[in-house]
Amino acid sequence: MAVRSGSGLIIPLGMVVLISGQLLAAVQVAQAHQLRFVTVVYRHGDRSPVRAYPKDVHQESAWPQGFGQLTQIGMKQHWDLGQALRARYKGFLNESYNVHEIYVRSTDVDRTLMSAEANLAGLYPPEDSQIFNPNISWQPIPVHTVPDSEEQLLKFPILPCPKYLKLQEETRHSPEYVNKTRDNLDFLHMVANETGLSDCSLESVWTIYDVLFCESRHNLSRPSWATQDVLNRLSDLKDFSFRFLFGIIEQEQKARLQGGVLVAQILKNITAAAQNPSKGLKFIAYSTHDTTLGALQMALDVYNGKQAPYASCHIFELYEESPGNFTVEMYFRNDSTKQPFPLTLPGCVHSCPLEKFQSLLDRVISKDRESECQVCSPRNDTEVIVGLVACGCILFLLIILLLTVLFRQKSQPIGYQHVSDVGEEHS
Fold this sequence. Notes:
Layout: E1 2-4, E2 10-12, H1 13-31, E3 34-43, H2 72-88, E4 102-106, H3 110-123, H4 162-172, H5 175-195, H6 206-217, H7 228-246, H8 251-257, H9 259-275, E5 283-288, H10 290-300, E6 313-322, E7 325-333, E8 341-343, E9 352-353, H11 354-361, H12 369-372, H13 378-411, H14 422-426
Parallel strand pairs: 3-5, 4-5
Antiparallel strand pairs: 1-2, 3-6, 6-7, 7-8, 7-9
EC number: 3.1.3.2
Family: Belongs to the histidine acid phosphatase family.
Transmembrane segments: 384-407
């Protein structure tokens, strides 16, 4: 049996059924994998160095806006990222800005606030009624923040936390740290001498690489001692300093006190979206720092050992596979010339069921971080014990004294009184 098409072609009925079945299956698959929510965590764009070393010929005056500020290169990087996110989520996010769909939060630092603004400029260029000036292809979109002194979510390491500082001290005594120091001792002395720094350690040498890296990107002269071999070695030590902050030893415990805080918030956002997939926000963006991405990715155990580059972006996507059945996918964009590459949470598949995603991360989420941050000092414990023993001894002596007094009182006859016999003799 056959079917005649509108153009006169005769198509076998079996083929019609096959094609219809394939189209129906494709529609069902498309409907079964619906994007419901996105969270992105990105690093700020290109900036000036945060400081200069004493012997550097390029001091703060060499940078138009001073130290630690977003450059025009950095602004363009985040505008490009905004455009890339716009293309990736076309059809999911509204073409024009909608206050009910997106929320952006940044640390209270100039370069992250400006990066968020540049990113939003690329994500939501104004259209139609949102244009307030035909000569400006930009519209104001809110970026939320909290004072730097109150930041407990996006800037790492989060301090004060005595337990974390104790773990860092233990890390300094780890074989890897000790060997790394020994193998680079002469090199660190050379760097200290060339830069004029009084102290140059595995933990501080990253600042030297940062200065040289920023200066080279902006075509400023490089000192003769900073050969390519020196730069490569500084880069390796810089990456080691990030691992020192959140890994090397006790990575899971460090995560509970640091990156796990952000993981917990992201999971909370994802869970809320899964509970109300057709309501609420669709997109949350966090504008942060390289240490934020380092802490986050080490808590997730997906860190590649390298500092997150400018405008790199970690993506979490929540999909609904069927009614009430959700999965989470992660991607990392660390190269603007390539599509974000997939990340897989250890112990799961790339498209990880939400319940498993949550259970696997439970180990790095503290139920009471304030309590876990506390450290019981051995010295203080000894002082408490000695104090308790002393109080116990005093109490024991007081009890003995009280019992002795009571015993002596009971040993005398009730109503005893001495009677003089002088009167009887008289009589």
